[in-house]
Write a structure and sequence with these properties.
Helix content: 40-55%
Shape: globular
Number of domains: 2
Strand content: 5-15%
CATH superfamily of the largest domain: Glutaredoxin
CATH topology of the largest domain: Glutaredoxin
Strand order of the largest sheet: 1-6-5-3-4-2
Length: 221
């Protein structure tokens, strides 16, 4: 009888432990692993969520990319962007705040990171807009108007020459550049968007303003 009772007690203990373990797994499954929907919630008092340092020559790395801010600034933020990524839109707003706060101390550089056909088309539209000096206007327009609309609507809204824009889009001449940005980003360890290289330090995932600000303050010391 005692043996049976002891066996029963052991079974109950194991069963309870299994339930606790499964509950723990379920509770932690809410952590976001898709970088396209990930927010790094590091506190400003802790270490920022650095993934790794990257071995690049920044001047060479950004020479064919769209840049805004002070081109001669000592601090560089490279944004790997997907136009189909909701957190990339949030990152756009954050970076605009950062640039407003440090207008002379940073420059923001754009890199493509494609996840689908729309990313390639939208990225190509931005490159075509750059031919008329309106890369960042197109970047803002795509995010502000919403994804997957007729690209000519964006072009019209920002005042592009529609005939020139149409010819550029049909040529597909920037497709190779867009795919190469993505390939190089992946080789550096980027596997989702948004991602940022801040003075050769790689961060993958959305960074709230306070985290971005904390990182930049440390970089500017």
């Amino acid at each position: 009888m005692n043996i049976k009772k002891n066996i029963t007690n052991i079974v109950l203990i194991v069963h309870s432990a299994a339930i606790v373990f499964l509950f723990f797994l379920f509770f932690n499954s809410g952590l976001k692993t898709d970088y396209s929907a990930k927010e790094n919630r590091s506190k400003t008092s802790g270490d920022p969520p650095l993934l790794r340092k990257v071995n690049i020559d920044i001047k060479e790395f950004i020479k064919n990319s769209a840049v805004k801010g002070n081109i001669n600034a000592g601090n560089t933020i490279i944004k790997y962007n997907s136009f189909s990524c909701g957190y990339c839109r949030k990152a756009k707003i954050t970076l605009n705040r950062i640039l407003k706060q440090y207008p002379d101390k940073i420059k923001i550089v754009y890199k493509h990171y494609t996840r689908n056909k729309w990313d390639i088309e939208a990225g190509h539209a931005a490159e075509c807009a750059e031919e008329e000096g309106k890369f960042w206007d197109m970047y803002e327009e795509i995010f502000n108007t919403g994804p997957k609309q007729d690209l000519n609507i964006y072009a019209k809204n920002i005042g592009l020459n529609l005939n020139k824009f149409s010819l550029c889009m049909k040529s597909g001449k920037y497709r190779k550049k867009i795919l190469e940005d993505t390939r190089i980003g992946s080789s550096l360890g980027i596997n989702g968007t948004p991602a940022f290289i801040i003075n050769k330090k790689l961060f993958v995932g959305y960074l709230p303003f306070n985290v971005f600000n904390s990182i930049l303050k440390m970089e500017m010391r």
